[in-house]
Structure formats: structure tokens, C-alpha cells
Specification:
It holds the Pfam family RF-1. Keywords: Hydrolase. This is Aminoacyl-tRNA hydrolase. It is an enzyme of class 3 (hydrolase). By secondary structure, the chain is an alpha+beta fold. The chain has a single domain, classed as Double Stranded RNA Binding Domain. The chain is about 35% helix and about 15% strand. The protein contains 3 helices and 5 strands, in the order E-E-E-E-H-E-H-H. The chain has helices spanning about 50-60, 80-100, 115-130, and strands at about 1-5, 10, 15-20, 35-40, 70-75. It is elongated.
């Protein structure tokens, strides 16, 4: 079990890791050894995550989310497989922690009278500047 928060723990069987050749540092070794890690986590079908957290997690994942609801994280920052595994897992845990925070609902507000006046003043100043750019009258 991977502890994410006090209430959420991920089952290790829900995380799938595949090793691929990385493109980062490593010299000639990079062509021979599969040190990069591709971590896959099915956020849509995970039993460890409550539904609201899973929905927020899928929004946070953005382009890392596939059409099937699987989050794919590729880690190739380090030269060793083990450090890349830790990096990918840490990034997933951080995304889940971010998804556990409930966003504060937005309250509608109206602009103040002073801000309306400032906006209109700046518009009229800009208008005057543009009027001054016109062709100058000729006195012939």
C-alpha cells in the first residue's frame, strides 16, 4: 500500500510500470538499457480513490490522461531505473494529493463604482490619443 493522505492509500496492484529506453542523460548507456519508466494508473476504475477525487484527478492530469481514463506518467529524468520509478510514483502521489483539495466555490461579485469610473476614464483617454492621430488639417 502506498500512503497518499491520511484517508487515501493506493493499492500497488493498481499501478502498472513498463520500462522503456529514455532519451535523457546516460551517454552510450542510454542506447542499451531501458531506464525510463512509464507508469500507468487507471483513475476511472480505481477502488482506492473516492469518486470526487478521481474526477478532479482526471481534470488535473490533462494531456497525461488517455480516453480510457488511464493516467500515463513517463519519468526519464535520472540515469537509473530505480530513481525514475520513485520519480514517477512521487509525481502520481502529488497529483492525487492535489486532487484531494476541494476547490473553493467562486462567488459572483459586481464591479465597484470606482472601478467602473476608472475603466471609463481610461477608455476616454485612449480615445483622445487615437483622435489625435488623424490627418492634420491643411490651411491652404
Amino acid at each position: 500500500m502506498i500512503l497518499v493522505t491520511d484517508t487515501i492509500a493506493l493499492d500497488e496492484s493498481e499501478i502498472e510500470e513498463t520500462f522503456i529506453r529514455g532519451s535523457g542523460p546516460g551517454g552510450q548507456n542510454v542506447n542499451k538499457v531501458a531506464t525510463a519508466v512509464q507508469l500507468r494508473f487507471d483513475a476511472r476504475r480505481s477502488r482506492s480513490l473516492p469518486d470526487p477525487v478521481a474526477i478532479r484527478l482526471m481534470k488535473i492530469a490533462g494531456s497525461r490522461l488517455t480516453n480510457d481514463g488511464i493516467i500515463v506518467i513517463t519519468a526519464q529524468r535520472f540515469r537509473t531505473q530505480e530513481r525514475n520509478r520513485e520519480d514517477a510514483l512521487q509525481r502520481l502521489v502529488e497529483m492525487i494529493r492535489q486532487a484531494t483539495e476541494v476547490p473553493k466555490p467562486r462567488r459572483k461579485t459586481k464591479p465597484t463604482l470606482a472601478s467602473k469610473q476608472r475603466r471609463l476614464e481610461s477608455k476616454s483617454k485612449r480615445s483622445d490619443i487615437k483622435k489625435g492621430r488623424g490627418a492634420k488639417p491643411s490651411f491652404e
